[in-house]
Design a protein that fits this description.
About 60% of the residues lie in helices and about 5% in strands. With about 575 residues, it is mostly helical. The strands form four sheets. It has a two-stranded antiparallel sheet. A two-stranded antiparallel sheet has the order 3-4. The protein has a two-stranded antiparallel ribbon with strand order 5-6.
Amino acid sequence: MSEFDEGSAAHEKGGGVLTALQAALPEAESWYDIHRRIRDSVPDGEEDCYRALVWAFGYDLTRPEEIDRRDRERSAFGAMMEFAEGRMPPRLCEVPDKDVALWVDAFEAVDDPRARSRLGDLLWERRVEPRPDQRARDAARSLLVLCDDPDWEPMEAAQGLVRALELARSVSDSDLIDQTATRMVRVIREEMAVDEHRPGIPFTLLESLISLQANHRPEAMEELIDLVEEKYRDDPFQVNTAIDLRCQLAAPDQARDLRKRQILLWTERAREGSGLQKLSFLRTALELATTHHLRDEAEALRIELSEISDDELDLKEISAEVEIPREESEKFFAFFLEREDWRTSLGLFANHGPPGGEPDKLNDAVAEQMKNNPLQYLVTGIVLDPDLGIPIFESTDDESHVRAARAQHRVFAARLWGTFAVRILRDIEERFGRPGRDDLVAFFSTDLISTANAERIAEALELWWEGKFNLSASLLAPRIEAVIRDMASHLGLAIVWEPTSNKPGRARSLGVNLAAMRSRIGTPGWHAYLVCLLTDSLGLNLRNVISHGLRPEIGSDDAALLIHAACFLTILSRSDSPEPL
């Protein structure tokens, strides 16, 4: 007997609900098709009576490898839709008992594999007594029948076979496991005779078969992989997947040779291609080499990647113009220049920012961009180092897309400000004349900036006014690092790595010091901007660009940004409190 009262559910609501189910099943092509038919047949005002069946066929059956989602759902079934106000259907464990009772009645009353496979599976997942294991077996057998239905979508049928095998394994039914595996082999062979290009079907089934223990795994696995690889031999992605499957069956020494073959596949396809495709394929080969510890192959690929020129990438420059009314721009520059002396002007220049704004404002801008351009974030993004021309970051998921977009926003804001900074610095010299060295040193000397560092910063500004931008930046970058190191020391932060038994001590890098000063230097926006300007590989990264000689010349705008950063550091004063500087 069921744990639910037999007289409830469908009997209380009349035969209309079961009638709607039976009407929705014939020639249905998918679970969603059944869901839609039932949903569209619901009489006005009777939504609660029909919701159990609308939910049952609205669930999304997750794949076995979707472990995180299954953990979140606490079931193999997830929501079809999730939105701010809720979800549809509810989590399986949260479905009220009265609705589960209707599933029981429908499972008993309707003899159709479309109904019994889904309802039996749901009752198994809920462990509804009596004999939930028997319902799992019934669901699996119904899925086997359904895969032969010509009206049922082929991919839906393949995923149903994967689920049938999972159910059979869950109840340790060896005969049912073997029956399902045999059916999978048959479907793979049949798919090889189909003209359509739909590799998802055979690969989905092969991956499931390979997961079986050896005593249940079909003997024809190697042959099946041969057939699939031959059919899709012109598609490197499918050949790559076939090799992945072979590696799961191979002994360790054989697997190593297969990985080398995989690397060769992508390397050869890269050399046949050009532009970003070539770059992407070589990156794939390098990732395989590093993942599987093939050091010689990895080193050769790094060399090949470093030799790709900008011309080979065939990149197209995309530019945009921002029109600022002349009257507005002149007011902007007048704000800095119409002052009584150069010290006030440089002080206002120092206070302007941070470029890109505070994190909350920047995050809102990124969210708006992702909302307005969703397709841009559905594909893998590749960030190239502007100096070396090599990939330095790939955005493949929401988190990495957001990180890349934030960095791009901050860089764009800095570049725009750099253009303005050039004119402001030139106009300050033109309006007030060039200050004397002693006056500049006094301006840059503070409780936190030593006279020695102030002298070098003043000299860098003089070099900038002389048009020697490269010399100015090269002198300024290490002085900014020294100032920040002194500030970190003032805050009580470690600025050196102690020696160990076999390694000498050394100064902590600028990136490490800045990371330790998060929330303790300026505002969060200023901290984020300094990281972008000086050390972030996705940002301007000027300290590293200059220190490592990555760019032959530093332009007036980048040098002006470093001067701006030095000016900003002058307005941070010593404090005995634990508040940020």
